[in-house]
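in:
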C-alpha cells in the first residue's frame, strides 16, 4: 500500500510546501482534462489535506487558476452555466481548505485554433488579468 501511495505522498508534500498554488488548464468539453483530475485524486487525501470530519487542512495558502477555453463564460455570457471547470476547481480547492482563489479566464481560445487570432495576440489580450492575478 505504501508503494501505491508514493506519488500521492510526493504531490501532497509539494502542495503543503507551497505558499501559492498556480494551476494552468485548458477546458475540455466544459470541464478539466483527465490529467488534472488525476492530480486532484492524488492530493485530496483524508488525514493529509482533508480532515476526517470533512474540514480542509490546507490552510493559509492562495491559488491562482489560469483557464483557457474555446467558449467565453463571463458574467454576460449566455452560456455562463456551462462553466463547470471553474465551479469544480473552486469546490475542490475549498474542500481542501484553500478559499483564497483567483481565476483568470482566457475565453475564446478557439479563435487561435481556427486561425482567426495568433497565440501571441490571445496571450496579450489576457496579459493584464494574468499580471494582476500574479500580484494580487
Amino acid at each position: 500500500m505504501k508503494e501505491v501511495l508514493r506519488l500521492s505522498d510526493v504531490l501532497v508534500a509539494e502542495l503543503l510546501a507551497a505558499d501559492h498554488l498556480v494551476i494552468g488548464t485548458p477546458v475540455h468539453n466544459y470541464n478539466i482534462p483527465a490529467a488534472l483530475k488525476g492530480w486532484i485524486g492524488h492530493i485530496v487525501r483524508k488525514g493529509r489535506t482533508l480532515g476526517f470530519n470533512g474540514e480542509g487542512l490546507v490552510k493559509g495558502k492562495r491559488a491562482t487558476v489560469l483557464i483557457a477555453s474555446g467558449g467565453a463564460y463571463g458574467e454576460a455570457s449566455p452560456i455562463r452555466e456551462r462553466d463547470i471547470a471553474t465551479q469544480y476547481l473552486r469546490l475542490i480547492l475549498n474542500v481542501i481548505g484553500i478559499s483564497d482563489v483567483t481565476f483568470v479566464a482566457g475565453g475564446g481560445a478557439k479563435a487561435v485554433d481556427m486561425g482567426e487570432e495568433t497565440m501571441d495576440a490571445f496571450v496579450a489580450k489576457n496579459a493584464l488579468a494574468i499580471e494582476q492575478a500574479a500580484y494580487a
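note: The helical segments are 2-17, 34-43, 84-96, 110-113, 119-134.
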